[in-house]
Write a structure and sequence with these properties.
The complex is a heterotetramer of chains A (364), B (48), C (556) and D (428).
Chain A (H helix, E strand, L loop, with lengths): L2 H10 L3 H4 L19 E6 L8 H9 L28 E6 L7 E6 L8 H5 L5 E3 L5 E3 L9 H5 L6 E2 L9 E2 L5 H5 L5 H5 L5 E5 H14 L19 E4 L18 H98 L3 H7 L1
Chain B lengths: L8 H31 L2 H5 L2
Chain C lengths: L1 H27 L15 E4 L13 E4 H10 L10 E2 L2 E2 L12 H19 L12 H4 L18 H15 L13 E3 L4 E3 L17 E3 L2 E3 L2 H19 L8 H4 L2 H5 L18 E3 L3 E2 L5 E4 L8 E3 L1 H8 L36 H6 L7 H11 L1 H7 L25 E4 L1 H14 L16 E2 L14 E2 L1 H13 L2 H6 L23 H4 L14 H16 L18
Antiparallel strand pairs in C: 1-2, 3-4, 5-6, 7-8, 9-12, 10-11, 11-13, 14-15
Helix pairs in contact in C: 11-12, 12-17
The chains are: A mainly alpha (364), B mainly alpha (48), C mainly alpha (556), D mainly alpha (428).
């Protein structure tokens, strides 16, 4: 387990403060300011002349395929182009009547957000915000879901749609490998006009504002990317409103992870409370059912008993009646039998008297 | 560089949500076990 | 059966609710969509006169004035078809001289007049909107502001032409023709009178919004100018063929304005101003005298060439600008921009009024704007920072050699004389360095690295220098303010002390993006920004992306 | 009301495969040959779908997404996500809704609806996962987020985890049917005793991933039209999924009664009207609640002015035409006890859910892009989606024709009395 995860676990257990004070961070009130001393670039649209040297350099240092039209063919600037899996940066031309030759250019590439939406959206952590300011992509983790492309407010990540089984997401890397060697990004180095001001982000931001302030009227008084989506490493200063050089001015300043923090925060609460609520509902229902069942059972029992008793009573009654009837019958039978016996005796006696009239007569 | 502090909100969230997911697993298992513990004696008591 | 009936009723009710609510919601919800992209027409007038009485049920009517005048002309009709004439002057209100008192009366007036005419002309113009076709006229303020772009202005040359014309018309001497237009309001007589020597610019009294002054409403610039100019042009037209424009397009398009005649000489307008005056910080008095306390008078007085500026600027109002409620031709520091500021001057002090950047009404602000406006100057001037005044620039205007302590009272005549003397002594010739100090060609041979695509550029140093000198010589301002011969060098050889042996570019510009000098370009950036930036600003070849215009490819 | 009598004439399975006992519908032991023959019996439309689907599969896995889809760098998600995933999951909500109603909320009279609903949901979820294999670039890495590299800050991780767990739960819930079919009494009883726990887990997991599917779009406020983007998106998705679940159970019952009537037992047939009207009542009420909270979202972000635009009109069509009106239709159906209204409302609601999911993920998504950069599905994308839907129907029929789904297995009829008692059982 990584040290960070371990400390986090300890922190979660409430011991973090005492064991590792350095790691203790309260989320509710913590403000993340990004990597100190990370690099940044300010693209100065007043300087860019649309020579496409940066595009050529980018293709060269990143070993990208050679495009159909050569880089010195400036007619492509007429179309509004975007980057693709084989191009990490493009220059686009925009009309600006006030500029020399009536044109202003904008260089499009990954802006390397301070809080990258691609990284925040990636479900396999394929994107990393590096301490040097670059946002890089690890193809060995990528599943190819393209949620990063949905999430990116700048439409930066591109995809190898022509690859059937091993497509990669492609985007500008800020020449992360070159930065590590102490070299400048390819495009920055190639620009004949130094239209890209490279340095520590904080420093180039300060210098950008210095340029704006010391040339009143030359620039729109805003550094695009200073606060957009929580700030980006690549920023733009422009002589005309940013919307007119193809930038979305309505992005807001909320960093991407903060946009989803609320929804993610609700997840554990649902997990924690739903079983309680549902268990409770279930409990209430079974209890009610049980109560109903019990009542029913008792009612049945009572009814049964009542019936039994009624039946018993009736039986008794019947028995008594039957007994009485039997007695009566018996009495009648006895009486009848007695009467018959008496009659028979009398008849016998009469018969006995016959041979001896005298007897019979005597018997009457 | 990795001193245990976070420079970006993203890093912080990956870390903290990771722990929260573990806690969620614990909650699901724990609530089940606790419910069993809670109701285990109901049967005998009901035999009045 | 009843079951089915009941069910039908249940279906009917929600459907009815749906049909009733959906249009209502869509009608009330405002649609933030793009504004009309149609080309604004100069003669489009939005008629929403009834709006002063409250919200209108219909959007305003967009009325194309020129379309109507053309149509009327074809029918041999004139302005009086729509505009009423009072005392020989047209009222520029439609079909009335005074406004009705209620919204309905106003609307009724327009509807009756417009519709009556449209009904009459429907045979010749079958497409004209008719009575019931509300939406064809009430299309809303889609052409907002169209009628005032671009605003015509009466510069000194045009003013001069009017002076001559008015003198001829009124048959008076030229200097007496002012009364034709200039007036003030006399409260005692309660009428407009001409006051000699008090002529000012129209906008000092006639503002964008109607202003109340002395209990009466002063018409807006728009109303006043249309009433005065157009009526005068119309009446002149009756007696002579040549007169000023009377239709919208005659004044309100850039093409028309460019076609206005110009006299070769622009006459000066004399209102008692000095040719040159010494501007000095102190307490001004009414007669032009200034009490100066030299100890607190700042960096020395300025000798101001008023006469020359009249010619450069071409009008009075650029410097003698109107204020919210008035304006005057008095000296800046006299009443408004005093040394400590006053409410009349919006608490802008003399020093601020002279030095403020980013405005055209201050001395320095106007000078920097001028330097950037011409493409021949912009190569050097556009990249110069314009947020602070450089420390060396004070002496360009502020004269040395004046006392630094004690007090003095300077009369207007003394100030004029001193200024004239100082200005006469100024060297206004173009200054150049000896050509042997200007290298003919430079090869910027810093491109030895492997992988460099191009060969080093050959830089025609002297040719460029001479071209710049030639262009600058055409500008009196440049001749006056390019302090010495080396000034021209510092356009490129900046940030170092001007010298005939300036430091090499590479001594400052080397590797880019060094932490402590990050806003200082590297060598490649410095060259390209300097050369390309200047070529772009001065609109000269080679163009920005023409690499081969300067460099040869390495493999050739 | 009139659907009671078994109508063998509309039953599609060849009567020779039926036993004489038409009520239980238990098939007699078939010969292997008969089994193959039966499996191969397909409607021509279905057969075409399967062939085309197979073709699409081959194309997808040989030439890549670029060949079979109109997806591009601006539009990374097409109808495979919008319909197969978003609609698929929402419409499979019947499983948790029905089992919760029956086992937790105590509506025992819905008992006969549980098994078909669980089966529908199980097949639904299984096919969602199946369809994802087409859409994601490297389907063989689908277990990565669960077992290899957990991107816990992603809503998609949450969705993935829950769908995986819920699929497992649904499988176990469905398992008894298979075990009964196989006659494995002992295991069946053990699994069966888990019913309540599984139901609760199911509700928890469904709440989470149904809502999280909506929350997926929370990260792109600049891309989704303001009328559809709301911080309430997760709530909307969850509540509308309940409506979808209820409607699907009604719809599925409707179809089963039409085509598989002979497979039903007396209880299922007798309970059918009760289930239908009970669910109609619930759906009407939930839909109306959903209708109200949709307006809360509009009010919360003060998006009223958008209602006057084209998107606003479309929003009104969705919210009034596909939420309010079906709710009213359900209500009329319930009040008048009119099955036609209920059935119409069920189909209407299902369409409404599809409209909503398409709106959020396609129509209102990338709304600021010029129309030539917008997405429209490719022919093969539609084929694959239709193929997945066809598979669903096929699998349902295949299983419901064999296993005790629409009837109670006679061996376990008496067990149903205690089905509502929990496994860990404290109930008694």
């Amino acid at each position: 387990m990584k040290r960070r995860s371990f400390l986090g676990l300890v922190g979660a257990a409430g011991l973090g403060a005492s064991l590792a004070p350095a790691a203790a961070q309260a989320a509710g009130n913590t403000h993340f300011t990004g990597y100190k001393d990370s690099f940044g670039v300010v693209f100065d649209a007043t300087r860019c002349i649309g020579c496409r040297k940066c595009e050529a350099a980018c293709q060269k240092v990143n070993d990208l395929p050679t495009p159909k039209k050569p880089f010195d063919d400036l007619s492509v600037l007429q179309d509004h182009r975007r980057t693709d899996a084989k191009t990490y940066t493009v220059i686009n031309q925009f009309a600006n009547p006030a500029a020399p030759e009536g044109k202003t250019f904008h260089k499009f590439q990954c802006n390397h957000c301070n809080e990258p939406a691609c990284a925040s959206s990636c479900f396999v952590k394929a994107f990393t915000k590096n301490p040097d300011g670059s946002v890089t992509y690890d193809a060995s983790l990528c599943v190819g879901c393209r949620y990063c492309m949905v999430a990116c407010p700048f439409y930066v990540p591109t995809y190898e749609y022509d690859s059937a089984l091993v497509p990669k997401v492609q985007k500008c890397t800020f020449c992360h490998p070159r930065l590590e060697q102490g070299l400048l990004p390819g495009c920055v180095e190639a620009c004949p006009k130094e239209a890209m001001l490279f340095g520590k982000r904080e420093e180039v931001l300060r210098l950008a504002w210095e340029r704006i302030r010391s040339n009143p009227g030359k620039y729109v008084e805003h550094v695009y990317g200073e606060h957009e989506m929580g700030g980006t490493a690549w920023m733009v200063i422009s002589p005309i409103p940013f919307a007119q050089i193809g930038l979305n001015e309505g992005l807001g300043v909320t960093p991407a992870p903060a946009l989803t923090a609320g929804a993610l925060g609700a997840v554990p609460i649902v997990v924690g409370l739903w079983p309680v609520l549902l268990g409770g509902l279930y409990g209430i229902n079974t209890m009610r059912e049980r109560a109903v069942k019990k009542e029913k059972a008792e009612a049945v029992a009572a009814a049964k008993q009542e019936t039994q008793e009624a039946a018993n009573a009736k039986l008794q009654d019947e028995l008594k009646k039957a007994e009485a009837a039997a007695q009566k019958k018996m009495d009648a039978e006895i009486k009848k039998a007695v009467d018959e016996a008496v009659k028979a005796k009398v008849a016998e006696m009469e018969a006995a008297k016959g041979p001896s009239e005298g007897d019979q007569k005597e018997a009457d | 560089m990795d001193t245990g502090t976070f420079h970006t909100l993203h890093d912080f969230m990956v870390h903290s949500k990771g722990i929260v997911y573990i806690i969620m697993g614990v909650i699901l298992a724990g609530s089940l076990i606790f419910w069993r513990f809670l109701t285990a004696r109901e049967k005998p008591i009901r035999k009045y | 059966m009843t079951q089915r009936k009941r069910a039908a009723r249940w279906v009917g009710i929600p459907c009815a609710i749906l049909f009733l609510t959906v249009p209502f919601i869509s009608a009330t919800a405002s649609t933030p969509g793009p504004v009309g992209t149609t080309e604004p027409k100069v003669d489009a007038i939005v008629i929403d006169a009834a709006a002063v009485f409250g919200t209108l049920e219909q959007p305003g009517v967009v009325f194309y004035h020129e379309k109507h005048t053309t149509a009327l002309e074809k029918m041999a009709k004139d302005c009086t078809s729509c505009h009423m004439e009072v005392e020989g002057k047209l009222s520029f209100k439609f079909a009335r001289t005074a406004d009705p008192k209620s919204k309905t009366a106003m609307a009724e007036m327009y509807h009756t007049s417009c519709v009556a005419c449209h009904e009459k002309v429907v045979r010749s113009y079958p497409k004209v909107p008719q009575a019931a076709e509300c939406k064809r006229c009430h299309v809303g303020p889609a052409v907002e502001g169209a009628t005032v772009t671009p605003k015509p202005s009466l510069d000194l040359n045009l003013h001069g032409r009017h002076v001559v014309a008015e003198a001829k018309r009124l048959q008076v001497k030229e200097e007496e023709s002012c009364k034709a237009c200039h007036h003030t309001y006399d409260e005692a007589q309660k009428k407009l009178v001409y006051a000699k020597g008090e002529e000012g610019n129209c906008v000092y009294c006639h503002k964008q919004e109607p202003m109340t002054q002395a209990g009466r409403t002063v018409p807006t610039t728009r109303a006043a100018s249309h009433e005065s100019c157009v009526n005068c042009h119309l009446s002149t037209r009756k007696v002579q063929p040549e007169s000023g424009p009377v239709l919208c397009g005659g004044c309100h398009t850039a093409e028309a304005q460019a076609g206005w005649k110009k006299t070769p000489e622009t006459p000066r307008l004399l209102r008692g101003q000095a040719d040159a005056i010494l501007l000095v910080a102190g307490t001004p008095a009414a007669n032009g005298t200034v009490d100066v306390n030299w100890a607190s008078a700042g960096p020395g007085p300025v000798a101001f060439d008023h006469k020359a500026h009249e010619g450069f600027v071409g009008n009075c109002v650029t410097c003698h600008h109107p204020t919210k409620t008035g304006g005057s031709l008095a000296a800046c520091g006299a009443a408004c921009h005093t040394t400590t500021g006053s409410a009349d001057g919006n608490f802008i002090t003399t020093a601020q009024a002279a030095h403020q950047l980013g405005v055209t009404t201050s001395c320095v602000g106007c000078h920097t704007t001028q330097a950037n406006a011409r493409k021949e100057c912009a190569g050097c001037h556009a990249p110069m920072k314009q947020t602070v005044l450089s420390q060396n620039s004070c002496v360009q205007c502020h004269e040395a050699g004046f006392p630094t302590s004690g007090t003095q009272t300077l009369s207007k005549a003394e100030r004029e004389a001193t200024a004239a003397k100082i200005l006469a002594a100024k060297d206004r010739n173009p200054k150049t360095v000896p050509l042997e100090n200007v290298p003919e060609k430079l090869t910027l041979n810093y491109m030895n690295e492997e992988g460099d695509e191009w060969q080093a550029a050959e830089f025609p140093h002297r040719k460029i220098y001479l071209k710049l000198v030639e262009e600058a010589a055409k500008s009196p301002m440049a001749n006056r303010f390019h302090g010495d011969a080396l000034t021209m060098c510092s356009g490129c050889h900046h940030n170092a002390k001007p010298s005939l042996n300036p430091p090499k570019c590479a001594s400052c510009h080397s590797k880019p993006f060094q932490e402590r000098t990050a806003n200082q370009p590297g060598l490649k950036g410095a060259f390209h920004n300097q050369c390309i930036g200047c070529h772009q600003e001065m609109q000269v070849n080679p163009k920005a992306t023409d690499c081969q215009g300067c460099h040869k490819p390495k493999n050739s | 009301m009139s659907d009671h009598k078994p109508d063998v004439s509309t039953f599609t399975v060849d009567p020779k495969y039926l036993t004489k006992d038409g009520i239980t519908g238990l098939a007699r032991e078939l010969t292997t040959k008969e089994k193959i023959l039966e499996a191969a019996r397909l409607h021509p439309v279905m057969a075409t779908l399967l062939i085309m689907g197979g073709l699409a599969t081959i194309l997808r896995f040989t030439f890549g997404l670029g060949t079979v889809t109109n997806l591009d760098d601006n539009n990374p998600w097409g109808i495979w996500i919008s319909i197969d995933l978003l609609c698929g999951v929402a419409l499979a909500a019947g499983g948790f809704v029905t089992s919760a109603a029956c086992y937790i909320f105590g509506f025992k009279k819905f008992h006969s609806a549980v098994r078909p609903a669980i089966l529908t949901a199980f097949i639904g979820y299984a096919l969602v996962v199946f369809a994802l294999n087409y859409d994601v670039g490297r389907p063989y890495r689908l277990p990565y987020p669960l077992f290899w590299s957990q991107g816990t800050s992603s809503l998609l991780f949450e969705v993935g985890l829950c769908v995986f767990l819920y699929l497992t739960v649904l499988f176990i819930e469905f398992f008894p049917a298979a075990l009964e079919w196989l006659g494995l009494k002992k295991i069946r009883n053990v699994v069966h005793s888990l019913t309540i726990v599984l139901t609760i887990f199911g509700v928890v997991l469904s709440t989470l991933h149904q809502s999280s599917l909506g929350a997926l779009f929370l990260i792109a406020p600049s891309k989704v039209h303001p009328l559809w983007y709301s911080s309430y998106l997760p709530v909307y998705f969850f509540v509308s999924a309940i409506c979808a679940g209820l409607s699907v159970v009604i719809f599925e019952g409707m179809l089963s009664h039409k085509y598989m009537h002979a497979k039903m037992d007396k209880m299922t047939i007798e309970e059918h009207d009760g289930v239908m009207f009970g669910f109609a009542k619930a759906a009407a009420f939930v839909l109306m609640g959903y209708f109200f909270i949709k307006w809360v979202g509009v009010a919360a972000d003060n998006n009223w002015h958008y209602l006057g635009t084209g998107y606003g009109a479309w929003f009104l069509v969705e919210v009034i035409g596909f939420v309010f009106l079906p709710a009213v239709c359900y209500a009329i159906g319930y009040r008048e006890q009119n099955p036609t209204f209920v059935k119409v409302a069920a189909v209407w609601t299902i369409l409404g859910i599809v409209v909503n999911r398409l709106n959020v993920s396609q129509i209102a998504f990338n709304w600021q892009l010029p129309s030539d950069l917008r997405y429209f599905p490719h022919f093969w994308e539609i084929v694959v989606t239709a193929f997945i839907i066809g598979l669903h129907v096929l699998l349902f029929r295949l299983i419901a024709n064999r296993m005790p789904i629409l009837y109670t297995h006679p061996d376990y009829a008496d067990h149903d009395e205690d089905v509502a008692e929990p496994a860990h059982g404290g109930g008694h």
